[in-house]
Amino acid sequence: MTLSRQSNAASNPGLAAALQSARASYLERNPKSHAAYSKATESLPGGGTRTTLVVDPFPLMIESGKGSEITDVDGHTYKDFLSDYTSGLYGKSNPVLLEAISKALAQGLQFGAHTPHEARFAAGLVARFPSMDLVRFANSGTEANMLALTTALKHTGRSKVVVFDGAYHGSLLCHFHTGDKGMPEGVVRAPFDFVIAPYNDIDGVKALLGPIKADVGAIIVEPMLGAGGCVPAEPQFLRDLRDYSTEIGSVLIFDEVQTSRLSPGGRQALLGITPDMTTVGKFFGGGFAFGAFGGKREIMDMFDIRKPGAISHGGTFNNSPLTMVAGATALEHLLTPEALERLNNLGDHMRDALNAAFKTTNAPFFAKGLGSINQLYCTLPAEDRDAAMEVLFFMLLEKGYWVSQRGTLALNFENSAEEVDGFVAAAVEAAGRVAAAAKSH
Ligand SMILES: Cc1ncc(COP(=O)(O)O)c(C=O)c1O
Fold this sequence. Notes:
Structural class: alpha/beta
Number of helices: 13
Number of strands: 16
Bound molecules: pyridoxal-5'-phosphate
Strand content: 15-25%
């Protein structure tokens, strides 16, 4: 297996034909995106700089966005049901955010100094997460996780990092799989001493870690596997993991980079489970590059430069004034309990409606997830699933819905109940056509 984007060859001839025709129509509809992509390949290997966005034969180029919609360079407008893989929570043009950012812009860029917004933002974050007595900022979720892991190892003086089957913790902390899936060729991973444990299986975790428990310095877990397919952790699994980590003297880290949008204090607050450290990122940056890691005072105090032996942690843009203002503003004005509850209820409704309609229409798809973060799955034979997902993706684009090829669905605050109903109807109709194509030969 490699990471290169190769055509998904469906073994089902009907699906193969549907895929060919969907790609041809995509090519015809998007000449300007195609040209822009060809130009991009002259200076960017593969024409882009974010592998997640790769589409065969080429990705669309977006020109602008407003509310819940984005418009590509060929003039097509899409309702956004991907929300930048969960980070685009506020839509494209939230007026409160835009006003705060404009004001900050007018005050000047890059002071190479602290601003009051840094502590204001930090205070807002630590007030939300019971596990965060203190917090530090970084530039991405990847960086926050790498810093949290390094901190945990230093705190415990141990070497091993436990991750879970199916986890994604960032560009350098990815493709954790056990069994025959292995690590694809071409993946580069930060050289921590990883142990990959089974998700939602505390007995399996204990059996694996028992013999090496004295070496385990960090256990990092997503309260729901995000990129791994929106697989929620069983609450009891997380509780047991909490207890086991304490028992073996490890630092338990919740990666809430995605799940922090499930409630004001993330999934940990919903479940009443307090890890030792928490990482967040994505939408907390108010639209800018962001990551943060925080935890118990005794752990985070290692960064207190007033104390002997403190850890040095630089980062030119750690406290970028624009990010600090945008993040603090979003936290104080937009990430309200009511707004998050509305959106997560809408996501639950969408998932239920999709599943009910897929069932009634016998479409070979289902949706899985929690609240506003969901994933579409195909139930056709394994060798045809990728092609079926791809056909569905192209059909939804043609219907004006922005989704991901791998089936990720994430809502944003601008999505209305009517839009969700429209999306459900479109997805069910497209799923029916995919099923018909699969049966046609
Ligand atoms: C759970 C989780 N952790 C970490 C990351 C990495 O964040 P970033 O892409 O900002 O580095 C992601 C990104 O998708 C994520 O979903």
